[in-house]
Amino acid sequence: MSNIRKIHDQLQNKEISCLELIKNKLDLLKSNTHHTVNSLLDETALALAKKVDAKIANGEKIGLLEGIPFGVKDVYMLQGTYTTASSDLLKQYKSSYTATAIQKLLDAGAIPLVKENGDSFGHGSSSENTIFGAVKNAVNPDLVSGGSSGGSAVNVAKEYTVFSIGGDTGGSIRQPAGYNNVYGLKPTYGRISRFGILAYASSTDCVGPIAKSIEDVRIVLNVMSGKDVKDQTTYASKEILEDTILNTDEIKTVGYFKNFIENDAIDAKVKADFLASIEKIKAKGITVKELDFFESDTLVSTYYTLAMAETASNLSRLDGTNYGARIEGDNLKDTYSITRSENFSEETKRRIVGGNQVLSQGFSDEIYLKGLNLRDQISENFEKDFKEVDIILSPVTPNNPPKIGDSLKDPLAMYLSDAYTVGFSLGQLPTLTVPQGTATGLQITAAKNNDELVLKFANFLKDTL
What we know:
The protein is an alpha/beta fold. The protein has a domain at about 5-245: Amidase signature (AS) domain (Amidase signature (AS) enzymes), CATH 3.90.1300.10. Helices cover about 40% and strands about 10% of the residues. The chain has helices at about 5-10, 20-30, 40-55, 100-105, 150-155, 175-180, 215-225, 240-245, 260, 270-285, 295-315, 330-345, 345-360, 365-390, 405-410, 410-415, 420-425, 450-465, and strands at about 35-40, 70-75, 110-115, 165-170, 185, 205-210, 255, 285-290, 390-395, 430-435, 440-445. An eleven-stranded mixed beta sheet has the order 1-3-2-4-6-5-10-11-9-7-8, with helices on both faces. Helix 11 crosses helix 13. The longest helix has 25 residues, at about 365-390. The chain is globular.
């Protein structure tokens, strides 16, 4: 059931007022103890709600997204709001413009309620690397919410927002969606503009929706998609129609990577549940093929080599001169050093140092160029696979969410929790987490630009598992 359609009908039929709806959601966000909120946009939200109510009172028809409350991960520019990236460095920074993807939602009449907590600058898989307190899992508050879009996933799971806009670089929408039992989509790279997002790794950063239904994901995806002159990696895409994704007959073959499932690192229950899901899919007459892929350790190493290099480059501008909380030292060099040392989290510093190392003379040929070469090989491998199968299915994570605090003690374990998501990021493929099949969901992936097929298969699984 689409929450967006349900609320739209209630508003249009005057069963609820938009002001009442927004006040209720703001109250839930204010009183929540999951640390999902970096800042509330209450004044803006209430003013917009009054306009929607006035329009309805006037007898006018409202658009499907008009008056629908949503959350925004705190890495997106939204003019006049704090955009902190959950960091000390930007905790007082206010956006002077609005990100394209968010502007499209505003143009459609959706109402932003909250800037949402997550790992600082997207650096983490647990939403613990933040100045606003670790985000607590929606199902069990002793566990992490996943990251880096943890606040966004929890707000949707707890119904504090109808949908939220996360950011996914190596799994940052899909993994927290899996940990909190909601839908989370990383679209094909370039389908949605990245203009106005605080960049982590520019070659894999993606804007995407988190919601409680496939239909809500489709609605929000359509609104945000499209070519943007401010982002040269974007392309024009066709609208995905509701009727089209309900027809699942064209999916004939599904593949899965056997080395993901036969890996020593995978939890026994996750493995058993995944294989049980495969049997149910076979029982529906779909051919299932085992595929060979790169070892998960190779995928994680390749992804972090490239992502750290890109983040070191992207964050080099944050030195307190033009942006960020400047801390004065004895001289300019000292000022740069203290500002960055004091204001970046330990995890961000780890990634900047690692990135600068792989880009440095003597290492770049040996490490960085090898990473680029492996990325090309991974993309070629996917092209070959999608000649054999329509869809690739995989667990979202090898294990269940850890307890809050455990990931901070073991960064390597945190990196390895991304083992099943980063490969699809490197391939720039559309990938959707569905809250079925294993305790942390299943991940559906299709060939580039085939986001429609991913949503189709999600509808098939909804009726199959």
